[in-house]
Amino acid sequence: MTLSLPELPFGLEPFGPATGWNYEDGVLTGSAGARQDRFVPPGGDALDTESDAPRLLGPAPAGDFQLIARVRVGFAAAFDAGVLYLHVGDREWAKICLELSPDRPTICTVVTRGHSDDVNSFVVDGDTYWLRLSRTGNAFACHASPDGEKWTFVRVFALGDADRAAGASIGFLAQSPTGEGCEVSFDRIEFRPTGLADLRDGS
After folding, report:
1. pLDDT in tens, 41-60
2. How far is CA 85 from CA 82, 88, 111, 168, 171, in A?
3. Residues 6+ apart with CB under 8 A from 25
4. Which tens digit of pLDDT belongs to each residue from 120-143?
5. Hey, what domains does the chain have and what are their CATH numbers?
6. Closest among 83, 60, 93, 67 to 169, alpha carbons compared
7. Are the beta carbons of 173 and 36 closer than 8 angstroms?
């Protein structure tokens, strides 16, 4: 079932384990079940089936963009997270997360090219933070912010070939890799059909 948000110029479809995504009064809510994650261990066999987590994704419009949301996570166990998610292929996807990693809220990123990497960037206070996923040209970037105004550069990367990157899907994910489940919410959702002139100037 397609979920349409007034803030987004594309519909969203659920992927992964079934969950109760809901949108009401500007707030998107979802949940992960016990030990649900989307991660291919870097030391494992890339042919193994990776674990999976609930995702709500739609096709990014052509060209540059910014997907912005404030995420709140009901932290209960290590690595519970709310995520902005990018998908360009079955083994090519990326996450920027507000994650309990493992005992303090942390901004983390994962880029998967067959195997996943795992990068912790900085610790934050509380259960709420702003995340931004953007595309400028053929590159994707991740930023985070305490207030949605001043942004901290987290990561820039390429993913997939030009055709797959141009056909990227973007959206939201909930995960609870070690716990019994995790509830997440996203508000202040915004889509901007522009890239970033400077990744590091705080804008």
Report:
1. 888 765 555 579 999 999 99
2. 10, 10, 10, 10, 5
3. none
4. 999 999 999 999 999 999 899 999
5. 23-192 (2.60.120.200)
6. 60
7. no
